[in-house]
Write a structure and sequence with these properties.
Radius of gyration: 15 Å
Largest sheet: 4 strands, mixed
Number of strands: 4
Shape: globular
Strand order of the largest sheet: 3-2-1-4
Helix content: under 10%
Mean pLDDT: 85
Structural class: mainly beta
Low-confidence stretches: none
Order of helices and strands: EEEE
Strand content: 15-25%
Amino acid sequence: TPEQVNYDGNSPYTGGEKSLFRERTVPVKSLPPNPWGLFEMHGNVWEWCADWYAEEYPKQAITNPLGPDKGTSRVLRGGSWSFLGWFTRSAQRDGIEPGYRNDLIGFRLAPG
């Protein structure tokens, strides 16, 4: 729901009711944290990931992949404030060239 995630509430996920559409990003800690204490992990802005983008994941497990044979797209996850509710799922991913910029994309610094 928009009480937990910043997305276009006019297009809710899985038949939910239409609700709030903020039409912009919200500051960190505006919404409740997830079970690991991380804020705004879904919606708000698409987050750049270190993963190389491929249409499908490899079938076998890979540790420290070297990247694709061609292309440089990186994974984006989590949807943004202007996208439909179903884009905010952590399983939702897209790929985009690292040089691309707009107000729907960000990144997260998290201590390891």
